[in-house]
Every structure is written in structure tokens, then in C-alpha cells.
TrEMBL record:
<feature type="domain" description="Flavin reductase like">
    <location>
        <begin position="26"/>
        <end position="173"/>
    </location>
</feature>
<dbReference type="InterPro" id="IPR050268">
    <property type="entry name" value="NADH-dep_flavin_reductase"/>
</dbReference>
<dbReference type="Pfam" id="PF01613">
    <property type="entry name" value="Flavin_Reduct"/>
</dbReference>
<dbReference type="GO" id="GO:0042602">
    <property type="term" value="F:riboflavin reductase (NADPH) activity"/>
</dbReference>
<keyword id="KW-0560">Oxidoreductase</keyword>
<dbReference type="InterPro" id="IPR002563">
    <property type="entry name" value="Flavin_Rdtase-like_dom"/>
</dbReference>
<comment type="similarity">
    <text>Belongs to the non-flavoprotein flavin reductase family.</text>
</comment>
<dbReference type="InterPro" id="IPR012349">
    <property type="entry name" value="Split_barrel_FMN-bd"/>
</dbReference>
<dbReference type="GO" id="GO:0010181">
    <property type="term" value="F:FMN binding"/>
</dbReference>
<protein>
    <submittedName>
        <fullName>Flavin reductase family protein</fullName>
    </submittedName>
</protein>
Amino acid sequence: MSVAECLPEAGPGVPDIDPAAFRLAMRELAGGVSVVTTGRGALRTGLTATSVTSLSAEPPTLLVCINRSSSVLPVLREQQAFAVNILKAGHEDVADRFAGRSGAYGAARYGDADWTELATGMPVLADALAAFDCRVEAILDWHSHAVVIGRIEALATSGGDGALVYWRGGYRGVAP
């Protein structure tokens, strides 16, 4: 039995929340902006995410939530590895490309930014505030999203600059 099959169905006592109202309310939650990358060569792809969080320090793991309709998810499932690149103020163009706002898809989203690799070979943004190179430990399909749990194999930090956050539909820089 999958986790999704264990979920309760809406019924008495379960509120019926309008998805649009939920999305509007969630705009009040400021979130750090990251780019999740996976794939190699011409099959590289990625997306912009604010739904990234640490899960455990021992062993070091994190989780990412990805819409199940995303074109990135099948590649991530195949690769069984991904990187989370925490963006700094000034990386708005990178965030927009990976959010699909530039019209670029797949490997074209990588543009002219400086990319490198760590342990798994997944693309890592060289000047990200921090980058976590992960192997997939589990993927849980949960309603509209997949919860991806990654064991951190390597990390890199550049430090110093302010973070990029997303709040109320726009980017903001947070100074140190």
C-alpha cells in the first residue's frame, strides 16, 4: 500500500479549503529561493523551489517538494541524485530562468552561469550561497507533489552575500 492510499478522504470534520485561497495565504510565508538541479549534459534540467528544508543533521538529509507534473521529476527519479543550490541576492535571473519565466527549458536554463559538479555529478552553481549534492533516499508521492528526501553527499558554501527570498510574489534580498 502506498502512502497516498493511506490518506483520509474529505468528509465530515475535514475542511474544504479553496486551493486559490490556500495559495494566496501561502504568499505570506517568505521562503529562501533555491534551484534544484539534476541530469547530465543535454539532459540537465532543474526548477526554482522555495519548498526546501533540512530534515536531519545526522545523517545530513534534506527534503524538497516538487509538483508531480513537473518535467524535472522523471529525470530526478532516473538519476537518483540532485543538487539544491541556495541562491543569493543578485541571482534573480537564475531563479527566473529555472522558474520558466524566460521561456528556456531543460539544459537551456543553465544559461551562462558558472556550473560545476561535486560528488554525484549533478550541476552545482559555483557561486551559490550553499549547494547540497544529494542522493535520493526516498520519494513519496503526496497529493499533487512528490516529497523528495535526499542524503547529502557533499556540500559547498560561498558565504558573505545576502540571501534571496521570495515573498508576496516577488524576490527580496536579505542582507547579512
